[in-house]
């Protein structure tokens, strides 16, 4: 019976270590999520600045295209360059949206779920562990009593 108590204690300790590791990882995940949120915010600001810049750049290109002479060729080259940069802006916008929708929001929901489930696991484990230890002690004492009776 003593080995059963040792094994029970070892498993209980292992479970408690895992739960403690889960609980101690919350601040790290929350910090990561807050930094990702800040990155998302800054990327959104960058996208807005890029859109404003490209709009102004497009006006310059249109102005050059609508003039006479060699400036027209420069204007069409600037327009092509502006269109390429618009595709970069589109990809940056897609990345920014994906960051929010596929990382930040799901991670925030998971962190809350992890907190709740870890706390519930800890409570349930504590109850079950106490009950199991009590049963083991009771069975152990019953076994000792029966062994004494058997000797008599």
TrEMBL record:
Q: Which domain of life is it from?
A: Eukaryota
| Domain annotation IMD: ranges | 1-152
Q: Which Gene3D superfamilies match?
A: Arfaptin homology (AH) domain/BAR domain (1.20.1270.60)
**Which BP terms does GO give this entry?**
cell projection assembly; plasma membrane organization
Pfam families assigned to the protein according to its UniProt record, in alphabetical order: IMD
One cellular component term from this protein's GO annotations in UniProt: cytoplasmic side of plasma membrane
InterPro entries per UniProt? AH/BAR_dom_sf, I-BAR_dom, MTSS1/MTSS2
* Entry's Gene Ontology molecular function annotations: actin binding; phospholipid binding
Disordered: where is this region?
Answer: 124-152
Name the PANTHER family for this protein. ACTIN BUNDLING/MISSING IN METASTASIS-RELATED (PTHR15708), PROTEIN MTSS 2 (PTHR15708:SF8)
Q: What is this protein called?
A: Metastasis suppressor 1-like
Q: Which organism is it from?
A: Neovison vison
């Amino acid at each position: 019976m003593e080995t059963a108590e040792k094994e029970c204690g070892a498993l209980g300790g292992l479970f408690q270590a895992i739960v403690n590791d889960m609980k101690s990882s919350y601040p790290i995940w929350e910090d990561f999520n807050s930094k990702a949120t800040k990155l998302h915010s800054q990327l959104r600001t960058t996208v807005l600045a890029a859109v404003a810049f490209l709009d102004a750049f497009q006006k310059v290109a249109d102005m050059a295209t609508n003039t006479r002479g060699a400036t027209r060729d420069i204007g069409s080259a600037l327009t092509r360059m502006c269109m390429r940069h618009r595709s970069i802006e589109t990809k940056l916008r897609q990345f920014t949206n994906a960051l929010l929708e596929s990382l930040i929001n799901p991670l925030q929901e998971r962190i809350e779920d992890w907190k709740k489930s870890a706390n519930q696991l800890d409570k349930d484990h504590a109850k079950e562990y106490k009950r199991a230890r009590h049963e083991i002690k009771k069975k152990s004492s019953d076994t000792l009593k029966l062994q004494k009776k058997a000797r008599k």
